[in-house]
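Molecular record:
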Amino acid sequence: MAVLEIKKYPEKILKQKAAFINNIDAHIQHLIDDMIETMYSARGVGLAANQVGIPKRLCVIDVSLKEDKKPLIALINPLIIEKEGTVEAEEGCLSIPGYMTNIKRAERVYARGLNREGKPVEIEGTGLLARALQHEIDHLDGLLIIDRMSPIKREFFKRRYKKFVKEMKSGR
C-alpha cells in the first residue's frame, strides 16, 4: 500500500465528473487500498478517487474515529438515491487544507453503489456519515465545498486562499 498525493484546489481534476467503473479488477482493489492508506495518513474521514488524480467513481469513508461502531466503507459507482431533512455544520476538505466552513447538507441520505467485491449495497447515513457520503459523492460529480457556498462567500474564500497558498509557498 502507498500514500498517494492528494490533489489541491484549484487543480482541474477536482472539477471533473468521475467516470463509472465497469470492471472491478486488481488495479481497482489496489487503488482502494492506497486510498484507504492515504485517507488515514491525512487524518480524513473520506477520500474520493479524483482527489488522488484518478477520475473514477470510487470513494472510501471511515467515520469510526468520530462515531463509534461504523465500518470502513469502500463504494464503487456511488449515487445518492434519497435525502431527508437539512442540517448545517462545519466541514473541511483534504483538497482545501486548513479551511473549514459551514455547509448545508441533507440530514439523512440513502446511497447506493457496489462494495469492493462488486456486490450492490445500500447505505443509510445520518450525522457525520451522511455528511461524508454527500461530500465524497460531490467530489465524484466535480463539486467542492466552495461550490456549495454563496457567490459572495466563494469570492471571499478565493482571495483568502490565494493569499494563504502564497504564504505557504514563501514559508511564512
Remarks:
- The longest strand covers residues 73-84.
